[in-house]
Design goal:
The structure is a single chain. With 325 residues, the chain is an alpha/beta fold. The chain folds into three domains: 106 residues, Conserved hypothetical protein from pyrococcus furiosus pfu- 392566-001, ParB domain (Alpha-Beta Complex); 51 residues, no CATH class; 155 residues, 3-Layer(aba) Sandwich (Rossmann fold). It is 29% helix and 17% strand. Strand 9 and strand 10 form a beta hairpin. It starts with a strand and ends with a strand. About 7% of the residues have low confidence.
Length: 325
């Protein structure tokens, strides 16, 4: 039994669970955000030693918008319970205590939406029958009407086929600029400038997805085919989607249109798509360092206006737009 350690750390040192069987719900996430705003932080998260949150990804996401980038970290080995004592609430008779008690259970009830895809992934590695009966599990795994199932089964003589949800290989990541575009998914020591701008200007509201996140180090849910290939993220609605430095490394216009339409399709009815464009070049370039589009702001706005209501963001370090349905 090791001695626990208590320290002050950063929320940005932690990331949401990469393979999360809970997709969460719009109503549940909204209620969680309201609870944090009204009653402060309630339930501790659990993370692995490398910083991936395995219980509390939704809390991590909403904490990034509700609190400063500072957290109380308890390092322990799981041999003793951890109790969080709220010294600002004198007793269980306090209205805040009663509201927290009800809210915590109701949020857990509302904010649960099982992902059949992720459950299937867990089912191949774990025995899930202690959690579900065979009949219940069979029902859960058959509930995905919107997901196309692909058979990746191999025989002994075939070359291994890497599944899409395993991400890129190390060699592919090393050559990512050539494969996917100039300055694509560069390593970062701080949150990207577009995400900093969005946070500073309160543009990241509701449920937030960073599409094409690369190696950005924020705490929001993300999708990236190389680094965060969680395709379940593309099977639900989002209130806000950030798409930073992605469109400008797609060479063909019809592929840019397809991406915009795909993101529009997973936006909530009042959702917002935030687009950041790396606009250094004034003409298309293609080299060993990858592709970079040379479109100017008026060209991007002409494309966006075909599908969205367009608002130009007042930015200096990148070209940015707020797009709504």
């Amino acid at each position: 039994m090791s001695q626990p350690k208590l320290r002050i750390g950063k929320l940005s040192d932690f990331i949401p669970q990469k393979q999360n069987a809970n997709l969460h719900t719009e109503r549940g996430m909204s209620l969680l955000e309201s609870s944090m705003s009204q009653d402060g932080y309630v339930s501790p998260m659990t993370a692995t030693a490398d910083g991936e949150v395995i219980d509390g990804s939704a809390r991590l996401e909403k904490s990034a918008t509700q609190f400063a980038n500072e957290a109380i970290i308890v390092e322990h080995d799981g041999t003793r319970p951890v109790v969080m004592k709220r010294i600002d609430i004198p007793s269980a008779e306090d209205p805040r205590a009663q509201r927290i008690s009800l809210s915590a259970n109701r949020i857990g009830e509302l904010n649960l939406q099982w992902s059949p895809v992720e459950l299937q992934g867990f089912n191949t590695k774990l025995n899930l029958t202690p959690l579900w009966t065979t009949e219940e599990l069979s029902t859960k795994l058959s509930e995905s009407d919107a997901v196309i199932r692909i058979d990746y089964s191999l025989n002994d003589t075939e070359e291994p086929i890497r599944k899409a949800n395993e991400g890129f290989s190390e060699d592919e990541r090393k050559n990512l600029e050539t494969l996917a575009g100039y300055k694509t998914a560069i390593a970062r020591t701080r949150v990207s400038r577009p995400m900093q701008f969005y946070e500073k200007n309160n543009l990241l509201s509701g449920s937030v997805l960073d599409y094409g996140s690369g190696q950005d180090i924020h705490n929001y849910p993300r999708f990236d085919p190389a680094y965060s290939p969680d395709y379940a993220m593309l099977c639900r609605e989002w209130d806000t989607i950030a798409c930073n430095y992605v469109l400008n490394v797609i060479p063909l216009i019809h592929n840019r249109v397809e991406l915009l339409l795909a993101l529009k399709g997973i936006l909530s009815p009042s959702g917002v798509l935030l687009c950041a464009i790396y606009g250094k070049d004034d003409q298309d370039t293609q080299s060993s360092r990858g592709y970079q589009c040379g479109w100017q702001p008026q060209d991007w706005e002409a494309l966006f206006s075909d599908f969205f209501t367009v608002e130009r963001l007042k930015t200096q370090e990148f070209w940015g737009w707020k797009l709504t349905k």
